[in-house]
Write a structure and sequence with these properties.
InterPro entries: Cro/C1-type_HTH, HTH-type_reg/antitoxin, Lambda_DNA-bd_dom_sf. The protein has 110 residues and is an alpha+beta fold. The chain is built from five helices and three strands; from the N terminus they run E-E-E-H-H-H-H-H. It is elongated and about 45 Å long.
Length: 110
């Protein structure tokens, strides 16, 4: 994946790349079978997403750019993901590798 990609999350959950002012659908390398996700992911859904990604709470938090306490609160049902976090979790359920690649820190050019 190019390091200078500009990505946009669409309201319907698709991720598109912006190239020369045009949106180009970003297709994962491997076909992904979407799994149903609750409208408001609760503790079981967040935990399931993290486990399917084979990440610890700390790794998942780092990839999402949130404190590990946020992940713990979601998984324990103390808080519910809202707004952008809820949308991001829904997209992760459908295309985790694409999302994690888009969120990865960009290496500085030498």
């Amino acid at each position: 994946m190019r390091s200078n990609m500009r990505l946009r999350l669409k309201a319907d959950g698709r991720i598109v790349e912006l190239r020369d002012g045009h949106e180009v659908p970003l297709v994962p390398d491997m076909p992904v079978v979407p799994e149903p996700v609750a409208v408001r992911p609760g503790e079981a859904e967040v935990r399931d997403l993290r486990r399917r990604a084979q990440l610890t709470q700390m790794e998942f938090a780092a990839r999402l750019g949130v404190p590990v306490e946020t992940i713990r609160n979601w998984e324990q049902g103390k808080r519910m993901p809202r707004g952008p976090a809820r949308a991001l979790l829904a997209v992760i359920a459908h295309a985790p590798e694409t999302v994690f690649a888009a969120l990865a820190p960009v290496a500085a050019d030498a």
